[in-house]
Amino acid sequence: MNLQQPSTANSPVIVWFRRDLRTSDHAALSAAAATGHPVLPVFVLESGESDNGSASRWWLHHSLVSLRKELAVLGLPLVLLRGGALEVLLGLCARSGASEVHAHHQYEPSDAEREEKFSSALSMQGIQMHFHPGTLLSEPTDLRTGKGGPFQVFTPYWKAFANKVRTQEPLPSLDRVRSFEARDIGVSLESLKLLPSIGWDGGLRAAWNPGASGAAKNLQRFLAGPVEHYDSQRDLPHVQGTSQLSAHLHFGEISPRQIWHAAKATGPTAAPFLRQLVWREFAHHLLHHFPHTTDKPLRPQFEDFPWDGDPSLLSTWQKGETGYPLVDAGMRQLWTTGWMHNRVRMVAASFLVKHLLLPWQEGAAWFRDTLVDADLANNTFGWQWTAGCGADAAPYFRVFNPTLQGKKFDPEGAYIRRWIPELQNLSKRWIHEPSSAPALELATAGVTLGRDYPHPVIDHAVARERALDCYRRMRMNNQ
DNA sequence: TGAAATGTTGGGGCG
DNA sequence: ACGCCCCAACATTTC
């Protein structure tokens, strides 16, 4: 039976916005516009989405505000709906008489299967569903090892990427687009309740400007200077030496190929930064081929690793009260701004799994809850890398010394002072190890350990030995 | 995209 | 002048 609705020149084409909240270099929007039909942009808030931490929801709210403005420039509305996307889209097609839906692919576990399901369910109703690439520079299945399997080590992946992937130029920008009259359809942005009910979001507002224009601004700032010294400065947490694009990229407010081409145009010095973009590709490649790694270690010998640290220390870590300044500064930066410098992420994450012996899954969950850039693929990859149980992983015996990392990457203590004001007046000699500072130094700086700033929750040398011991035991058990 | 322990070397103080 | 020792600086190995 043919259920196809009569498609007229006035029947709309729906653009289903997902994590691609931009109007430039937007394959789905461009394809819809090219049909000549009126275009109906829609965003569907689904419950139970993986990125539903409060910080992430805050970002989404403001990103939708921004998208609505951008669409208005093209003469388009943005319809907001909530519920299961399939039901919602079917309903919207029926109501508006649409016969085509365009969207970008997404790449989290079960997305591929789900997109299959969408395509067939919609085609049953005579509606064409088109999923476009555009969220990544390469599809997760594009690159294969010589043996035909997925990569598990970055360097060979990087080589294959450099050899095979040709990144297209971004799409030409759109002029006005024919719009579909969407009156009386959809709900208000406020009713999505994405904003926090109590005002804890001041730090986020001060730090970020969600949306495509904020993304463009960060890219421009980065390419105007920091990109040149990226290799040496990206590890300094008190310097704005990184692109600050992670959250914008996660929500698709800017496309990876826009970044790729803009960076490349600045010359050969952009190479280290471009390589960093390919880590994102690698993380998505891994998650696609090993979807179970969101909660299980990639390397099976870690299945029953004894993560038997004191569970009460999880909240100590979350609050930034471990007594190790670099770890605490990072955790407080995260809580306040929804973001943490990457070098500090490595140190703070290593501290949770190796010093505190708490499961990396707990850390990953906390990061998903609090990061504005919370991204399942990147986050999963990063945590497994840190714990030593993932792809291209840090060997387990590589235990970061948070004090040394502080001295090395924050030699003046500027980052510590920014996020731990109670240590403000401690000299750079002692700011990374207040618990070793002479009593006079502490007194002069007005710091009483245990009152103003905590004693270390565990001694570094002791923790290191304990972690190495667990590793040795695991190796024994797997022989 | 470590850190700590251990090993090696070479300059200089000193008898 | 010579050998001995100390130890800082660097290199290598181990976890």
Summarize the structure.
This protein is mainly α. It has helices at 27-34, 54-73, 85-96, 111-124, 154-164, 202-207, 212-223, 230-233, 246-250, 256-264, 271-289, 313-319, 325-337, 342-355, 360-370, 376-387, 402-409, 414-419, 439-445, 460-477; strands at residues 13-17, 39-45, 79-82, 100-104, 128-132.
How would you describe this protein?
The chain is mainly alpha-helical and 479 residues long. The chain folds into 3 domains: 123 residues, Rossmann fold (3-Layer(aba) Sandwich); 114 residues, Serine Threonine Protein Phosphatase 5, Tetratricopeptide repeat, CATH 1.25.40; 178 residues, DNA Cyclobutane Dipyrimidine Photolyase, subunit A, domain 3. Helices cover 45% and strands 5% of the residues. The chain has a 5-stranded parallel beta sheet with strand order 3-2-1-4-5, with helices on both faces. Strand 1, helix 1 and strand 2 form a beta-alpha-beta unit. The relative contact order is 0.11. The structure holds a DNA duplex (15 and 15 nucleotides).
Features:
Serine Threonine Protein Phosphatase 5, Tetratricopeptide repeat, mainly alpha, 479 residues, 5-stranded parallel β-sheet, Rossmann fold, 3 domains, DNA-binding
